[in-house]
Amino acid sequence: MSADYLDLPQLLAARGTVRLPGSKSISNRVLLLAALAAGETEVRDLLLSDDTAHMLAALRTLGVGVEQVADKAFRVVGVAGVFPLREADLFLGNAGTAFRPLTAVLALTGGDYRLSGVARMHERPIADLVDGLRQLGADISYLGQEGFPPLAIRPPMPGVVEGDGLGENKVVRAIRVITLRGDVSSQFLTGILMALPLLGSETTVEVVGELISRPYVELTLATMALFGVQVVREGWRRFTVPADSAYRSPGVVYVEGDASSASYFLALGAIGGGPLRVEGVGRDSIQGDVRFADALAQMGAKITSGANWIEASAPGGTRLQGLQIDCNHIPDAAMTLATTALFAEGPTVLRNIASWRVKETDRIAAMATELRKLGAIVDEGDDFIAVAPPASGASLHPAAIDTYDDHRMAMCFSLAALATPLRINDPQTVAKTFPDYFERFAEVTEPVPVVAIDGTSASGKGTIASRVAAALGWHYLDSGALYRLTALAARRAGVGWDDEARVAAIAGDLAVDFAGSAITLSGEEVGDAIRSEEISAGASRVAALPAVRDALLFRQRAFRRPPGLVADGRDMASVVFPDSASKVFLTASVEVRAKRRHKQLIDKGNAASIAALSLDLRERDERDSQRSVAPLQQSADAHLLDTTNLTIETAVAQVLDWVHKVPQKG
Ligand code: DC
Prior knowledge:
By secondary structure, the chain is α/β, with parallel strands linked by helices. The chain folds into 3 domains: 5-21 and 256-447, UDP-n-acetylglucosamine1-carboxyvinyl-transferase, Chain; 24-254, UDP-n-acetylglucosamine1-carboxyvinyl-transferase, Chain, CATH 3.65.10.10; 450-660, P-loop containing nucleotide triphosphate hydrolases (Rossmann fold), CATH 3.40.50.300.
């Protein structure tokens, strides 16, 4: 995906099956423990994404043998606790699941390392982890702002640390109990626990303050157990890694599907009808975010599950209901509840989500800002967000959603497409955990259908398209009118038709309303004014400007509302609605078109000459088909309809026949 936005059409329904990508949290834990273990591990179903790429690259930089052996399978040659490279610079992007545990492991193994990430990573606090590690003798310093990455790690300070006789790289601090704050990120505890077996001696971590995101700590303990280390715990307060713990490869490890990624599809099923099934996680999952399905069930969704799958459908006969919920146990999947709330009756209140503020972005602020763009009613505080759909049954309105370099923002907001067409800015941010998210999304969703009718001037497009729309009971978009309105508005503002930047600004701000067949511009009826020969010529000029076409693109797509849209123009099939399943290209001889236009003008009491009109049509055809952007062309997948010898009724019947023959999805 190279575009810096993705326009999602409004959706009618969602159903189908999605095979989930591997869990990010499990993938990065397993990779690190496989690297630290004795023996070789084959990791299967690994997530291939930005965050795991950072972990893989870091391990290779540290000298670990990592080899891809199949599509999603890697062989990791364990180093038995001692990285071959004792000095390295590691760049870890915005991958918290790589940065925190690597910090802990490198600080306790001894060596000279520098760890850095993207700008946002340098705004995410890490002081609690560093404070915990310093109690074990680690030598860590902040290279930028105190308390935040980037970090420099040096071998533990002499005198504070003693060797245990097992090797110069082993570090043991006399103090066996350390304290660690657990209320900012559970990844600090995860990082330290994963590093402690490298010490060889018994060490206890006492958690100070409320431990958040507990299921992720469970995941850590389960993964450590898989590699042969049993942590002894007293509730959520004390965790002890016994003496002589050491990681051993279990041989082959399968990574579960990502439960957080599952949340988007389960919500789609609950909102869009379903059934929508995710495969790769199920009832027996070790990931906390599978509990998201329980929250959906509390909202009224129908949920069923098996050992390795979960399925969601909409409640029968009623709407989803708003929910009040403490989200400590599902911090990531809880974000999905915030956009699901757009479809629920009454407000949804998500509590205990302070950790959102230190994630990929300040997720509470980002979520509130973007939900408001759609018309939702939002209230937020330090550690909660309350979301309700627009008041008194009003519908959500189209908007361009910013994603703040946060994969989950992009994925959460895709759900809003079940209520409105929308634009997702920087959609490629999903690569952090789910590179082909939008492809999977398209496979299980049914967009509002659109009939795209393109053709030359006076080929009969407008008449045929509006009658097809009436016959189907669908909306109608006369896209040429938008170019005409732009030309008219520019003329009235005294802006030249070649002044690309200013005409584009005018196109972006058009205060236009299409009510039935009436067209108003800033409140004034302009149906006739935009059809004059002068404005026709102006429309053709402004339509050749790329910035004007860009400015009108989303506005045209926003017309695609249920139950369907018939759109006419020059680039409906090629640019505006390339996914249309019904594309028609209309043409007719210049002579016949000139006669039709002549009759229209004479009927309105205007003088006209057929010869002059023919010449004008030829010139306009030439300009519309030769321009560099979105030229008038028949798409390869469009039906050609030559109306030279057809009545309007016959042409309409032919188009309807093509529309009805389109196979239905799902
Ligand atoms: O269809 P029409 O004659 O009302 O279109 C007016 C002008 O706008 C015409 O010169 C072509 C241009 N146009 C376009 O470039 N792309 C469209 N989708 C529709 C119209």
